[in-house]
Amino acid sequence: MSSDPYIFTTDALPSDIRFLPPLANGLLGWRVYNNIMHMGGVYNGEGGHCHRADVPCPLDVKLETEEPVQHTYSLNTHTGIFTHTLSSASVTASQSLYSHRYHSNLMVMEVLLVRQVTSEQPITVNLVTSFTPQSKDIVFQSGPDYKGGSHILGQTKTAEFQGGSCPTVHLIWSPIPPSLTLLPEQSQARWGFILVVANSLESAKASFDQGLSLMATGNLRPSHEKAWKELWLQSKVEVTGSENLCKALIGCMFYLLSAFPSIHDTSSSFGGVSPGGLSNGGDGQDYWGHVFWDQDIWMYPGIALFYPKLARAVLEYRVGTIDGAKDNAEKQGYKGLKFPWESAVSGREVCPEDIYGQQEIHINGDVTLAFQHYFYLTEDLSMFKEGRGSDVIYGVADYWVSRVTWHPEDQKYHLLGVMPPDEYYRNVSNSVYTNTVAKFSLQFAVEVADLLQHPAPKEWKEVAEHIKIPFDEESQYHPEYDGYVKGHPVKQADTVLLGYPLGLEMSPEVRRNDLEAYEPVTDPHGPAMTWGMFAIGWLELEEAEKAQRLLEKCFNNIQGPFQVWSESSDGSGAVNFLTGMGGFLQAVLFGYTGFRVQKDCLVFSPLLPNDISELCIRGVNYLGSQMDWLLRKDEVCIILREQSGTAGHTKPHNLQVVLKASGTKIPLRPGQPVTFPRESGCVCKLDSTLDSSCWPF
User: Fold this and answer.
1) Coiled-coil regions in this chain (predicted)?
2) Could you give the 3-state DSSP secondary structure of residue 554?
3) How many whole angstroms separate alpha carbon 106 and alpha carbon 196?
4) Cis omega before residue 501 (within 30°)?
5) Residue 649: its pLDDT value, please?
6) What is the rounded distance in angstroms from the CA atom of residue 441 to the CA atom of residue 369?
7) Which residue is catalytic, options 46, 238, 316, 423?
8) I want to staple 166 with a disulfide (CB 3.0 to 4.6 A). Which of 105, 156, 207, 614 is the partner?
9) Residue 37's beta-bridge partner residues?
């Protein structure tokens, strides 16, 4: 077995094929050995029937030989390549599969045969497939062959909404023979097969030409590997002390990155991230491939910390759904924008059950929180001006103002008839999470309006200041909603999210009371992302071992040799559950480090549990600069990287570290390590005068 934690190796595939590794690149997604795949933004079905359209996959091929062989299967996350190796006395055959990381319309299969003994005999391996050029979602017809490639094209059967368009899909692929033979005079031979999936014939032909040209120059695999290498150079999260944790973090980062576009992609055609990623989401499975708050609250923060360009792609996806969000608000009888609980391409509500779209309105604040997080990390105002981010922020603020009800008894604004993140309850009033996220998105709207010199309606500030945030004075904790009975069961992390990621100000005592009230009543079979949020809470209170016990619960959701997550710990629910991976990653990235992205600074407050001796986080991207962090039990080391021009839309600022207890200020200079004893502090601009609001608690 491989000792490299980035290579997941096994001699037997998982018995449950759902846990075979997904190979994706932000546009195309496929689970190995599956005869269907998916393309981002290609859905079939109207409204609540909308789901990712099944696209047939010609690369559904298994290698077989006549003689007995030893099998090895490995997923190399350094390179995003899955390899099946068959070793016998006479030959070693290996089949490699990958979704090209740079050329996103391209998927590849390579076969290599190497003779093990000198012999005059030809050696043959069989290529066994269950591929048929058909789909229940797309009506395909044959097109003329192109440069030796087979070609089919078709349109999805039903548009997402009445009057909407049905996307077209073209596939061109190298025909795959039933067998491959190593001739007597050959000691080894290699074959390459490419598949192109695109929305137009022009784009399909261009991508197929590109694939042929890369094969001819021997650059097909190197260009893919180079793109993965570049991604990993911009983000690494590694721990010393727990092999399991190290591997889990690598798996989370790999599968999350696979769901995002290339950092070189300029097409702006990114279709968002669904809970099971691109490899899943067909009719009736893995949430139909829809985009939920999972993207903005659970997956996004861990990616945004390293990759401003990928963070921006998420925001651009939401901007692209503004018209649908406007339509949703109008249908509900409110002003502004109402982002759908379940989103596909148009932004119109595609949730199969109306109540979620009607009541789980916290999605609006979840979306704007991602914009706020991005702005505080990058100060990229272009996203809000030319990028139309301000339309999202203002539209959500207008929605909240029209959605609240004034209650003269307590002189507060109320949000009535909502479903909190804890979906065991519906039609409740004043969900504490929903009201808090509404308050913060209204405050951010005022801030953005101020920056862009846009006259902000006085109601934004008025509602933000006077919206009710439920609090039980007697028990000194936040009830989940008006009338919540302490001790009643909870589906998932809800009120505990007030501390992180929302950052609602509260005393350590109240934070502890919230954690202690909800932890014992949270469904042990609930979704996987929950325990990471409790862990972050306990780390804030400096209870690292308690946090660690909760984080270890997540290991039950990691299935089989390829580190693929299931939504529930018994293996049920959504597969390749990126939401759970995102929550887990945040527990390390924002828990162990204490990172908090705030208006004028990046706060840190490091704390490692006993069994972790070292945490290394490389590539943290803040205000246009990249930093590498090394956390040990009793010291912290930060290195500001030399500028490489990958900062995106942000001109780098000079940065300094300010330590909280001593007030010591240490300038960060490129390439010069800064080491100090472990304590809380923040990173901010060198010319910054810090106000005390930068510190948590």
Assistant:
1) none
2) helix
3) 5
4) yes
5) 67
6) 7
7) 423
8) 156
9) 30, 55
Euclidean distance between CA atoms 659 and 186, whole angstroms = 66
Cα–Cα distance for residue pair 486/513, rounded to 1 Å: 11
- Residue 216: which of 143, 148, 265, 262 has the closest Cα? 148
* Nearest of 697, 512, 506 to residue 596 by alpha carbon: 697
Gap between the Cα atoms of 545 and 609, Å rounded: 6
CB of 619 within 8 A of CB of 628?
A: yes
For 120, 492, 609, the CA distances from 531, given in Å and listed in that order, are: 61, 9, 16
pLDDT tens digits for range 422-447? 999 999 999 999 999 999 999 999 99
**How many helices (H) does the chain have, and how many strands (E)?**
16, 32
Question: What CA–CA distance (Å, rounded) separates 53 from 38?
Answer: 7
* DSSP calls for 155-215: EESS-SSTTPPPPEEEEEE----SEEEE-TT-SEEEEEEEEEEESSHHHHHHHHHHHHHHH
Beta bridge partners of 413: 406, 467
Tell which residue, 461, 357, 338, has the closest CA to residue 417.
Answer: 357
Q: Position 539: which residue type?
A: L
Is the pLDDT reported for residue 523 higher than 80? yes
**Dist CA 72 CA 86 (whole Å):** 7
Confirm whether pTM is higher than 0.90: yes
- CA dihedral 644→647→653→657, nearest 10 degrees, is -80
d(CA 241, CA 172): 47
Q: pLDDT tens digits for 307-349? A: 999 999 999 999 999 999 999 999 999 999 999 999 999 999 9
- Domains of the chain (ranges; CATH) run 7-211 (2.70.98.40)
Do residues 519 and 530 touch, judged by C-beta distance below 8 A?
Answer: no
The vertex-261 CA angle with 257 and 264, nearest 5°, equals 115
Radius of gyration of the chain (CA): 26
Tokens of 638: 């930060």
Residue with tokens 């469904």: 523
Query: What are residue 564's DSSP bridge partners?
Result: 559
Query: Rounded to whole angstroms, how far apart are CA atoms 249 and 189?
Result: 37
Q: Helix 578-586 and helix 243-258: axis angle, to 10°? A: 130
Write the single-letter amino acid at 113: L
DSSP string, 427-486: SBS--HHHHHHHHHHHHHHHHHHHHTT----HHHHHHHHHB----BTTTTB--SSTTPPT
Residue 30 in contact with residue 47, Cβ under 8 Å? no
* Residue for token pair 């546009």: 27
Residues in the chain: 697
Residue 498 CA neighbour count, 13 Å, CB half: 30
Partners of residue 656 on adjacent β-strands: 667, 684
Q: Is the pLDDT of residue 646 over 70?
A: no
CA 17 to chain CA centroid, nearest Å: 23
Instruction: Specify the pairing of strand 138-142 against strand 602-604.
Output: unpaired
Print the SS3 string covering 620-683. EEECCEEEEEEEECCEEEEEECCCCCCCCCCCCCCEEEEECCCCCEEEECCCCCEEEECCCEEE
423 among known catalytic residues: yes
For 395, the token pair is 């539209």
Degrees to nearest 5, angle at CA 380 with 532 and 500: 20
- Where residue 663 falls (left for φ over 0; alpha for ψ -120 to 50; beta otherwise) is left
Angle of helix 544-553 relative to helix 530-540, nearest 10 degrees? 170
